[in-house]
């Protein structure tokens, strides 16, 4: 692996770092196309976690002895690395959660319930993952504020024609950077300044973009950014919330317990400083070490290179599937590869997504059928379920060819 | 026969392409129940009319979903329409046994060859058991039928 | 390792299963005595997690393809195993969280905020970990209910003389099964019926007992039970809430997002059934696999045997430290080993806990100084910090001897 | 000399056993500030009186904690009592440099041998830097002094 790996062949060589990609399914080599749900991880990440567990594990903070210092150091180094990876001005602004969902709930509970009430409004899009809808619906039901929706427009893009009206008087715009169904990359460079101009904060669900392209939260100008470790070569069990220090400092704690207090008496408690304030209990210690190793791996390849690789692969896939299946296939989302991520929501004529996925599995091809936790979007798309194929740095054109052949088979199987 | 061919037998695809008893019934007099698979978004709507003798005199099925859920619903409708509630529950039990699902609190009893024969077309769904996530697809219409029957008898 | 391992020698042989216990600190073999904060884990647990990551990883639920089925299966098997391990009548009553702290917050947010208001009261003890205090204080500040306290009495035991008065009209008793500072095992067999008779529910913080002795939630009769995986040979990043199905079904969701809904529209959402309702987002997938492997390991040894081993070790330690240090050492908590867990809060005359811990570290001995996230208890004990040594199945009398020698050294170092 | 002997030098133990300037001052006229290490529960209370010329005419230290936090507080009191605020801040900066802590926004500058010599007894705390969790113990009294000075000057 070199830091300047840019050609498809070099990317193909990465596969050997991922033990699970060497396995077989039904006697066929595994073609893993479900990284949008959760990625696989390289040996380097697994090794880093094993090393932590076997040489440097103890509960973090508060310990004076060597193992506790080593574990605390590893955990805090992971925070520093994560902060640098996303361009956070201050590493204390990086809060480790269990997943992106907890990160978004943290914002909705702590910021939302404190700042929103009757007469207030927030803006979401119908393209959001349930993780960026339900926490707000729960808060709205409790606090009585309004949720306004940016709907889907043409070519898998948001309809921004009424943006100004929607933002007028709103206190928050919470929006995905990239749709996990359509691959649509939303124009944050336009939306964030517009929201700020209207006096609204911006929370970005960056689950699908942080793993696949360079991220700089300072340049982006967002107020909160949430993402998950397991979608970016890291382990399960860890997510990240980044927030502007000024906001985090003003917010009440979310979960209460050990590690988030500066004092507790039977009369009450005083919260500790950010980020401890938001990290109650034993944190995902070794998961943070794994995430740091994943970041090292990604940085060694280069996020620009990864993005470029995925654009090329997406372009190839759009062409190839059209060639192979013609009008029997519909691929939702933007038609221009550079405007989208490597997430293809596939509809095969006369074959239900569930059946597509099942037949593909018999070819060793892993794609996910269903609503992808985005039911409002599916409703606007007028579909019930799609079969989603999604790419990551370890995928190559061979994987796309296998996908295309398996889809053809599924189609002929059901079309007789 | 590969697992996948065993799953998608011709008779299943036939029910999928030409579902029996598809449609709606007016409620009332019909009883209606909706079933929902949150994992894949499949939906089944069962409409039925039960007469005083406990016979399912009419039954229609609506909804949408994958070949397994839709063909299972079609086969279910054919298997119970015109039959007694008792008979319908018997078939349900046999079919769930075929899907490796025991009644709540009971031990799983595998259906006998004789019982399976009585299932008719439904027996073709036995390949589903090798694909655990699809078992929910195959049983969705039955759970919905169960609800509709409970309601009609309530 | 055999299922009938009962002698000290057999337990001593377990050390070889724990790679980190073969490491050294300052050239001395590691004597790890901080399992009450977080335990170490055997190769078996690490292997199970590596196997999952390298052969059976995908996001759980919703996937049709082989890896997704395998991962879902492993995750749900972990739920079954955990349920059986704690004697839960129904495995759906087992909810996986990120740690015990989240589990207790879930109860305080979802059950507490729904059921408690002005005029209501709950009962806590001053012996609680902050994780079982702060979530209730946060809810009380919001909802205006009263928190009543059972205080510390003699010999490290709770003062139950006013129990009836405290429980009168209370809606909840939330209490630790074993103090993480004193080792005190609370008389739940007496307290739970008393609380129920008074009409209160009982939430048990079982962090310190589930890893160390047999647990049967049905026999115990509690309504909620919370504990953490990392204290019982499992990985970081996973905790458990068990609750009675009837209660869990009536409670509103806590975190919102994917996996916990049965439907979402822009108008609102419908929660899924228990346990999904309480498991929003990608769960700690591989952490659950690790926890299951930890349970296998513990069950193979036998929880009764582990408890017996720790009673013997505690008895030995109490004797040995007294012999070696006489009146220069105070060990807080119950004097009778069978009434306590293997947690020794040590005060060394004229030496601050922080310094004790530091000197011990130079002997390779890992003990934790501080308030152990139990500041109200420390205040009642009249101390600011203790040095806590805690035992687990891999500790033996050699470890105790090393501890005693190191404490002597610390004492003479400072006492000159 | 082992790390641990380097950490606990005799002069440190001496300040720990016989703390200088221990006690309280009445407020007002004195200014009081409390410092708190949530990790270990150490507490430092600084009382000081600043005259119009900016001289710390009196200073007392209360609180409790480990040998490092208490000896550091004692040494701090001896180093700044009777001195100007300017001088106190200078010593603080040197001491924090010794502890590898840079001023907010500034690069870390290691103190010169000359500066270290000027620290007097405080230089004995240099061994702490090898034990990162103890750095907070050593600097607690200084941060509390800083607060007290800010308040007195406000
Ligand atoms: C008694 C008790 N309760 C709660 C906790 C909190 O557990 P966790 O940090 O895993 O959330 C702990 C452990 O620190 C504990 O000992
Ligand atoms: C866009 C988006 N948001 C949020 C999530 C939720 O992430 P997690 O399940 O890790 O909490 C996902 C992934 O499922 C996602 O794709």
Which SSEs are present, and which pair or pack?
The complex is a heterotetramer, with two copies of chain A (416 residues) and two copies of chain B (154 residues).
Chain A: H1 8-13, E1 24-25, E2 28-29, E3 31-32, H2 43-55, H3 66-85, E4 94-97, H4 100-115, E5 121-125, H5 134-143, E6 146-150, H6 163-167, E7 172-176, H7 188-197, E8 201-205, H8 217-220, E9 224-228, E10 239-243, H9 245-250, E11 261-265, E12 268-271, H10 285-301, H11 303-325, E13 329-332, E14 343-348, H12 353-362, E15 365-366, E16 368-370, H13 375-381, E17 386-390, H14 397-415
Parallel strand pairs in A: 3-15, 5-6, 5-7, 7-8, 8-9
Antiparallel strand pairs in A: 1-2, 4-10, 9-10, 11-12, 13-14, 14-17, 16-17
Chain B: H1 3-7, H2 10-17, E1 31-37, E2 42-50, E3 56-64, H3 67-80, H4 85-98, H5 113-119, H6 132-153
The complex binds pyridoxal-5'-phosphate (PLP) (2 copies).
């Amino acid at each position: 692996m070199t830091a300047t790996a840019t050609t498809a062949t070099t990317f193909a060589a990465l596969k050997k770092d991922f033990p699970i990609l060497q396995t077989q399914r039904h006697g066929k080599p595994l073609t893993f196309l479900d990284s949008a749900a959760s990625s696989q991880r390289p040996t380097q990440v697994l090794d880093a976690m094993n090393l932590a567990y076997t040489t440097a594990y103890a509960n973090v903070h508060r310990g004076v002895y060597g193992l506790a210092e080593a574990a605390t150091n590893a955990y805090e180094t992971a925070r520093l690395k994560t902060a640098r990876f996303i361009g956070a001005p201050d590493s204390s602004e990086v809060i480790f959660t269990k997943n992106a969902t907890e990160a978004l709930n943290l914002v909705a509970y702590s910021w939302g319930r404190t700042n929103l009430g009757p007469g207030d409004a927030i803006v979401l899009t119908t393209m959001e993952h349930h993780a960026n809808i339900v926490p707000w619906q729960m808060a709205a039901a409790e606090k009585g504020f309004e949720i306004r929706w940016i709907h889907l427009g043409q070519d898998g893009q948001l309809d921004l024609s009424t943006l100004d009206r929607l933002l007028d008087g709103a206190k928050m715009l919470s929006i995905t950077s990239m749709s996990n169904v359509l691959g649509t990359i939303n124009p944050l460079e336009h939306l964030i300044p517009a929201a700020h101009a209207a006096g609204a904060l911006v929370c970005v669900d960056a689950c699908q973009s942080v793993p696949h392209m360079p991220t700089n939260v300072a340049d982006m100008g967002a107020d909160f950014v949430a993402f998950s470790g397991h979608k970016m070569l890291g382990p399960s069990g860890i997510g990240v919330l980044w927030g502007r220090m000024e906001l985090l400092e003003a917010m009440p704690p979310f979960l209460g317990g050990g590690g988030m207090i500066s004092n507790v008496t039977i009369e009450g408690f005083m919260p500790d400083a950010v980020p401890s304030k938001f990290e109650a209990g034993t944190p995902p210690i070794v998961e943070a070490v794994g995430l740091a190793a994943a970041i090292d791996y990604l940085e060694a390849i280069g996020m620009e290179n990864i993005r470029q690789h995925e654009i090329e692969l997406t372009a190839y896939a759009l062409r190839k599937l059209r060639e192979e299946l013609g009008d029997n296939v519909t691929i939702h989302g933007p038609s221009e590869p550079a405007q989208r991520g490597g997430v293809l929501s596939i509809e095969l004529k006369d074959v239900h997504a569930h059946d597509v996925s099942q037949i593909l599995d018999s070819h060793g091809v892993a794609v996910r059928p269903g609503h992808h936790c985005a039911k409002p979007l599916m409703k606007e798309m007028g579909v019930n379920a799609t079969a989603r194929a999604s790419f990551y740095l370890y995928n190559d054109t061979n994987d796309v060819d296998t996908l295309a052949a398996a889809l053809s088979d599924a189609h002929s199987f059901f079309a007789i | 026969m590969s697992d996948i061919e065993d799953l998608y037998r011709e008779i299943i695809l036939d029910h999928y392409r030409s579902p029996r008893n598809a449609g709606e019934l007016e409620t009332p007099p019909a009883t209606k129940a909706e079933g929902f698979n949150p994992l894949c978004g499949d939906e089944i709507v069962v409409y039925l009319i039960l007469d005083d003798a406990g016979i399912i005199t009419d039954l229609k099925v609506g909804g949408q979903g994958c070949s397994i859920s839709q063909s299972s619903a079609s086969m279910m409708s054919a298997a119970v329409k015109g039959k007694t509630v008792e008979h319908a529950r018997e078939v349900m039990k046999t079919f769930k046994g075929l899907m490796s699902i025991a009644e709540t609190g009971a031990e799983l009893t595998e259906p006998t060859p004789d019982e399976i024969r009585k299932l008719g077309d439904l027996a073709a769904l036995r390949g589903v058991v090798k694909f655990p996530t699809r078992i929910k697809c195959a049983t969705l219409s039955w759970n919905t039928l169960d609800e509709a029957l409970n309601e009609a008898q309530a």
